[in-house]
Amino acid sequence: MNIVQEEERRVASQAPKPAKFRRTRVQSIPRWAYVLFTVLAVLVLLRTFQRGVGTLRPAQAPTRPVTVAKVVTKDVPLYLDEIGTCAAYETVLVQAQINGVIITRNFQDGSDVKKGDLLFTIDPRPYQAALDQAKAQAELDQLNLKRQEDLRTRKVISQQDYDTAVANAQKSQAATESAQVNLDWCYIKSPINGRVGLRNVDVGNLVGPSTASLVTIQGLDPIYTDFTVAENDLPLVRKYLGGPNVKVQTYLSDGSIMPRMGDLYFIDNAVQPGSGTVKARGVTPNPDRALWPSEFVRVRFILDTLKSATLVPSQAVQVSQSGPFVFVVKPDNTADLRPVKPGQRQEGDLTVIEGVKPDETVVVTGQLALSPGAKVAPQPYVPQNSDKPQDAAVSESAL
């Protein structure tokens, strides 16, 4: 028993003893560290709040570049634009008045002729012989009349014989004049100033009053301008018809000639049932023969002159759901939206408008980036080539 207990003691003494844990001493955080941490946190939150407030502030709108122009005033026409055709001022079908054979032709087809120029010659020999015969008979009747007058003074002949002698003298004189007219008709001359067309006969043809015309001559200076006025425009036309400013301006669509100002010659007294238009005609100067009959032309029917009309470039007028408007630049270079009432487009890319004052400045380009009150950087507007009346293809309402 003792031996067993001693062995247990020996084994227990040899067994490793468990290590004893040491208590480590925890150090405490000083108060100034807590204060510093709190201050830093407050600064971070304040900085974050300031950045958030800065982002919420609206950014200042940038200055928009625009081109501007002044509102101008000048006298402009009140007009209607139409499509028309030209027509010869005079048209003559040259006809032979006597029967005979053409022996000469004295013109070139398509050439210009003047009144009195010789065109054709009909063989004059038969008519010259008839004239000589008529003259001889007239001289004989005149001699007979003188003898009868001498006998009558002596009361030798009767009154009837004397009257017969007078009648024969007058008849022979009339026959002489008729023969002279027939001889003159052998020389066919131009009755007007104009341009001849293609001849219908040549030398050697037998012509007469019953044959076709020899040639056609058309007077081209001046020339007629025929056009129509829509039924809807008649009240406006009637208002100014007969006024001193009513004119007809004619030009070509390709701009090859300068617009030519003429006078209103005729306006019909009825509306055409099929088209609802009224025929009108103007007289246009054509000294260079640039306008030809049946040629299509543009017509500007000028009714009156608008005195001191306000004009702006056409690009300045914009259209919104509320209607036409323009941006007016104020003295502080801010844009002001101004409703306007546009009128007709005029020469030089200008448009008549109501709603702005003379010498105000309007925005011509750059309106899409603008809003009322926006800051602008104005630059002067440089217009392109001035529009001629032929560039205005569509008539606008003048009311």
Q: What is the CATH topology assignment of the largest domain?
A: conserved putative lor/sdh protein from methanococcus maripaludis s2 fold
Cα-based radius of gyration, to the nearest Å: 53 Å
How many extended strands? 20
Helices, by number, come to 5
Low-pLDDT ranges: 19-26, 390-399
Average pLDDT level: 84
The CATH architecture of the largest domain can be given as Beta Barrel
**How many structural domains does the protein architecture include?**
4
Strand content: 35-45%
What percentage of residues falls in helices of 4 or more residues?
A: 25-40%
Shape: rod-shaped
Quick tags:
single chain, 399 residues, alpha+beta, conserved putative lor/sdh protein from methanococcus maripaludis s2 fold, Elongation Factor Tu (Ef-tu), domain 3, OB fold (Dihydrolipoamide Acetyltransferase, E2P), six-stranded mixed β-sheet, six-stranded antiparallel barrel, 20 strands, rod-shaped, disordered C terminus
